Amino acid sequence: MAKLTKSKSPTILDASIPVITLVTLLTVAVSYFGDSSSYGPNQIALLIAMGVAIVIGIKNGHQWHDVEKAITNGIALSLGAVMILLAVGSLIGTWLLSGTVPTMIYYGLNILDPSWFYAAACVMCAVVSMSIGSSWTTAATIGVALIGIAQGLGLSPAITAGAVISGAYFGDKISPLSETTNLAPAIAGSELFAHIRYMFWTTMPSIATALILFIILGFTETTSNNYQSIELLSKQLSEQFNLSLFNLVPLFVLLALAIKKVPAFPAVAIGALTGGLWAVLFQQELILRLASSNTDVLTANITVVWTAFFDGVVIETGNKDLNELLSGGGMSSMLNTVWLIICALSFGAVLEYLGMLKKFVDVILKSAKSTGSLIASTVATCIGANILTADQYIAIVMPGRMYKEEYARRGLDPLVLSRTLEDSATITSPLVPWNSCAVYMSGVLLVNPLDYMFYCFFNWINPILAVVYGFIGFNIKKLTQKTSDNTAEQAV
């Protein structure tokens, strides 16, 4: 019979060493590789830091096969997201080829006023995200088009990305169709629609403040916009694509599927397939230009559309900026994102399994005496989890489990915990450059997280407001007897 080895809990020094290692290596990676640090260097930093954590875990009595199982389980959490990522890559490729994205850019150039553009972009993304419950899908569709419009109008892609992400996360956060909006109350023990209503107290002031800031930026920024440049860009788009409102059908198909609560992967996949079909129906001239010379029509359609699914499209217009705007997509464009997600989740899974994350929470709770400090500690833990585990779902689930009993012990309604989880874990995920959400946003919007993060006003204001509410005691719901009984039943 095998002898069981009893493992011991990590010390605060044990828990700190992998974190210090990661921060140091990420700093070195950024200093040496700059914007390209997410294309390999950051992955190596995560794996080395994970290795350091594993060595400490083995020193504390953990077995390698148990750690390996934890890594496997951690990666398994991302498989659904990986499938969605690959489908989104195909969607972007076929929507570029079908003229769906170029059509949105074309009409947007002629409708949106530069002075109101950032605020309008935020509102548009908020409405779409609230309707479909997905910040990711919103960014990959409306967001991609808005980045293109911003470039055409001579506006900042970084600020536009900030507006897209602010609006997308606001809509996602208050949508009953959102996965995170359902996850947070499930973990905390609150009711979904009560949770959404309670979040309005922090989300509405936050998005209102963000819109004011976007309006100010829109009216103060000097742009290169003029009628001639818009006419030239519109002409170049119309020369490359057969532009009409029919090209927007794939977008409406995707929105309809999302509203019907079709799961994200099949919905996005159907959207991509619709884009491929629409390319065949409406972009024959483009397909023949992109095909190899002396290729018959049938072969051209099969090879070009098929390539759009797995490797995107490359459009040559004679305008370098327009080429970058209209080229890209395909599953291959998401492989680096998948690589980073796998490395990040592996690191986070090891830290959670070895008890290192819990060690930080135990230390924090010793100094969290007041309601304000408890909420601040929860926010800090969720942000820390986003940094260390690089996954918003872990950043919701882990602190939710850890703090649930403490909130009940202090007589706080589960709504306070569920709102705090969303005000921090969900909102700050796209601000951490190596977090899966930030990597995704950067991948589809083609803007570095270090550039756009300062303009995600909603994502910064919301967690700060949550902490302020906690310290001043504003809108902090106490535990009623009925809620207390329900919480006790759930605990049993």
Automatic annotation (TrEMBL):
Locations listed in the record: Cell membrane
Transmembrane helix keyword on record: yes
InterPro entries, per database record: Na/H_antiport_NhaC, Na/H_Antiport_NhaC-like_C, NhaC_Na-H+_Antiporter
Keyword Cell membrane included in the entry's annotation: yes
Transmembrane segments: 12-33, 39-58, 70-96, 116-137, 144-170, 198-220, 241-259, 265-283, 295-315, 335-354, 374-396, 452-472
Coiled-coil spans in chain: none
Family the entry assigns: Belongs to the NhaC Na(+)/H(+) (TC 2.A.35) antiporter family.
GO CC, any one term: plasma membrane
Residues in the signal sequence: none
GO molecular-function terms, A-Z: antiporter activity
Annotated membrane topology: Multi-pass membrane protein
Descriptive protein name: Na+/H+ antiporter NhaC
Pfam families assigned: Na_H_antiporter
Organism: Colwellia ponticola
Stretches assigned to the Na+/H+ antiporter NhaC-like C-terminal domain: 167-474
NCBIfam families xrefs: antiport_nhaC
Keywords, alphabetical: Antiport, Cell membrane, Membrane, Transmembrane, Transmembrane helix, Transport
